[in-house]
Amino acid sequence: MRTYDFAPLHRATVGFDQIADLMNRVTASESSTNTYPPYNIEKTDDDAYRISIAVAGFSADDLSVDVKEKSLVVSAKKAEEEGKSYLHRGIATRAFERRFHLADHVVVTGASHADGMLHIDLVKEVPEALKPRRIEISAQKAIETDVVDAKAVN
Questions:
Q1: Which of 34, 41, 49, 97 has the most other CB atoms within 10 Å of its CB?
Q2: Domain membership of residue 38 as a residue range
Q3: Tally of domains within the chain
Q4: 51 belongs to a structural domain
Q5: What sign does the CA torsion over 116, 92, 42, 102 have?
Q6: Same domain, 19 and 77
Q7: Higher-pLDDT residue of 108, 80
């Protein structure tokens, strides 16, 4: 896998540290890509999203959804069941932890577990101070100032 050096970006820009960190995180080389459990991310509205994670075999008590430092952390641990012996075990119920980095002003509004799926709803709530606004332009009359004619002084 390729690695990129973002040092020129750090030298030529100010205040874009988050973008450089995001690029480093995305391009970080990992020996194996974690694909368990499978998940979907869908856009449900202009500023609303839903993450759906397939968690077959896990109950709501086995699952944990936490928000820590702009990251959504979904984890699960299934207690081992005593006395069961399987001839074939095709349903994976191994422990997992999946992290999603959240953008600024994205908040988790709720989570639900139904039919083997964990649904996590998110909304982007931009504060009023950061929303674009139109500034009214008022028509002011020009302020007349007294102009004094200056005479040349010898």
A1: 49
A2: 34-81+88-126
A3: 2
A4: yes
A5: positive
A6: no
A7: 108
Domain identity same for 26 and 39: no
Interacting residues of 134 by C-beta distance below 8 A, sequence separation 6+: none
Span 94-118, average pLDDT: 92
Residue 93 lies in a domain: yes
Q: Are residues 70 and 116 in the same domain?
A: yes
Average pLDDT in the 43-52 region? 94
pTM of this structure:
0.67
Is residue 10 over pLDDT 80? no
DSSP the chain: ------HHHHHH-SS-HHHHHHHHHHH---SS----S-EEEEEEETTEEEEEEE-TT--GGGEEEEEETTEEEEEE-PPPPTT---S---S----EEEEEEPPTTEEEEEEEEETTEEEEEEEE---GGGS--PPPPP-PPPPP----PPPPP-
Residue 136, in any domain of the structure: no
- Residue 135 — very low, low, confident or very high, per pLDDT cuts 50/70/90? confident
d(CA 91, CA 116) in angstroms, rounded, equals: 12
The two tokens of residue 127 are 């504060």
